[in-house]
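An example makes the point: we print one protein in full, the chain in one-letter code, the fold tokenised, without further comment:
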Amino acid sequence: MNRREIAEQIFLAGVKSVLPDVLVSGTVRLVDNALLFNEEKVYLNEAGRIFVIGAGKASALMASELERILGDRITEGHIVVKYGHSADLKIIKVTEAGHPGPDENGLTATKAIMKIARKAGKDDLVICLLSGGGSSLLWDCPDGFTPEEIIQVNKLLINSGATIHEINAVRKHLSDVKGGRLARLVQPARLVSLMLSDVIGDRPDVIASGPTVPDPTTFVDAIEVIDGYGLRKNLPAKVTEYLYAGATGKMEESPKPDDEIFRNTHNIIIGSNRIALENAGKKANEYYLNAIVTSDQLQGDVATVSEFLVDTALKLRNDVNETKPVCVLFGGETTVKMTGRGEGGRNQHLAMLCARLLEEKPGITILCGGTDGSDGPTRAAGAVVDSDTIVSAYHKDVDIQEYITEFNSYNFFRKVSGHIITGPTMTNVMDIVVLIVD
């Protein structure tokens, strides 16, 4: 097995450890007549109806495991997932919708989820399942906006180079469901949210735009993001007018930590990038690699990150005191500001940039992959590269700079090979970088 294949097996081991059904079964237990969520306990003889709602790429498998645990105790439910991420559910309804760009299916499903939330009474239990992708899948239109306008805002934000924290600050202030507002709809029922973190720092208020979590951001923060990334000129005028109305107190702010609506709300993170990295490290050890789990907070523009990764690899290769072969594992989420017209995603683009930097630098293998199995709007999870990648490009008369300029990483790897294809993994805990140095 060559280094590329080993890197892929290490990546897949990390993904397998954060599959939603595994995480839910490790968190939720039915003991006698009590439902345990880690330290939280709900006695079912005291609870009324049980509703299940949620959104995200992992929510279908989460819901499937919840149905296995609770069976017909579930009264009703509805979740929304990315296309191709569904599961065979018996009680909970599932809708497939658009991601990373929201679409009409997501809007329709969100209305159904909000309707269920409003049904819940003070004796009822609402279980909310949230994971990566939830921000695009669970979406609505505030009064006065059209779906097309909200979709336009989302597209501009995603392609702006803004961090997910910044993107969600805007999203939460153009919604009646994000930024804690779903929790407001659920009250006075008891609410328990189970979350798979796909964000740097595992902040619950950022996961899926925090629909059940107090929102620390404000309308002013949203305006600063719009202006900081030069988006105002391309946005519908009513968007900035709406945000300014909120900033001047004419619109109700998102609920904050001291809001009474959160008194009966419990948010529990059941899966994270750190769990995936630790299990990837165990797999690396099986291949007699010196595994080093570094950071689960890798972030920044892909150009800067590619230089950091290759520089790290070169320093390790030249370090006589470091036990080799070594496998360094990073997790997080980079950003890419699209200016070309090609196909790809942040992981493939990062890998392509690394490939260029690895020319004539043998003994280094770098894999960049998304744990959800889909990097941007492509069928690839990411790509793996080494010094042979650029050699292959030369032999096939492929100009790597042209593909970099056009942000066409998907088609670059289709020609020179290196794609990591997993299909939908049904989970999402950000990205993993596997760096092997001989």
Remarks:
- The first helix runs from residue 3 to 16.
- The mean pLDDT is 95.
- The chain has two domains: 22-140+175-217+254-271, 274-437.
